[in-house]
Design a protein that fits this description.
- It contains three helices and no strands.
- The protein is mainly α and 66 residues long.
- Helix 2 packs antiparallel against helix 3.
Length: 66
Amino acid sequence: MKQEELRELTDKELQERLENAEKDYMQLKIQHSISPLDNPAQITADRRTIARMKTELRARELKINK
């Protein structure tokens, strides 16, 4: 998910997507520990997407407090 797409979401939608992404990420890591994934780069991509979401939420939080 691109940064521009994240900016278009509301705070509630972004928070929901973040929770789902974190849940999916943990499942992916568990599956990978049991048996190797076909595309292990997906773990890195998911982790970076989660970081983008958290960054956007934090930026909004700081913007409100100013």
